Amino acid sequence: MTTIDLFQHAPDSVIFAAGHVIFREGEPGDVMYVVLEGEVEIVVQGRVIDTTGPGGIVGEMALIDARPRSATVRATTICKLVPVSQRRFTFLVQQTPFFALQVMQVMSERLRRLLAQEHQSGAMPSEVEQPAHTIDMAHHPG
């Protein structure tokens, strides 16, 4: 089973015209999208870092960490997307472990691709964010 199989007959799909911005970097995010048809590009700070087509997902990070959008997503062709709310996302993760694994795989592949691009260009990330919920084991009793 693929991600597209889970959403193929979803009644709430939305059509976006080529060139339409689906969401912008920095905006709050309360849905992710599954691409059923067409292609979208993922843009960070004005640079296209990835494209995805049928079966792909975008916007998942905002559902996972409740932070503003990390990228802009724009339709490069006419697209049919299915919005996935936080509630639906949580249900799918709980009831369909395969879905959760696919989301993690997409995130991992994007991170590896971005790191490879940074390495090839010789650029280093200007700022590395530290997670808000770290444990300092050196000062942790026990």
Which tags fit this structure?
alpha+beta, four-stranded antiparallel sheet, disordered C terminus, globular, 26% strand, 8 strands, 142 residues
Describe this structure in words.
The chain is α+β, with helices and mostly antiparallel strands and 142 residues long. It has a single domain (3-122), classed as Jelly Rolls. 32% of the residues lie in helices and 26% in strands. The chain has helices at 3-7, 60-65, 86-95, 97-121, and strands spanning 14-16, 21-23, 31-37, 40-44, 47-52, 57-58, 72-75, 79-85. The strands form two sheets. Strands 1-8-3-6 form a four-stranded antiparallel β-sheet. The termini are far apart. Residues 127-142 have low confidence and may be disordered.
Major β-sheet annotation: 4 strands, antiparallel
| Residues in β-strands, percent | 25-35%
CATH class: Mainly Beta
Mean pLDDT value: 84
CATH topology: Jelly Rolls
Question: How many helical stretches?
Answer: 4
> What class would the helix/strand composition place it in?
alpha+beta
The helix/strand series, from N terminus to C terminus, equals HEEEEEEHEEHH
CATH superfamily: Jelly Rolls
Shape: globular
Q: Which percent range fits the helix content?
A: 25-40%
Order of strands, main sheet, comes to 1-8-3-6
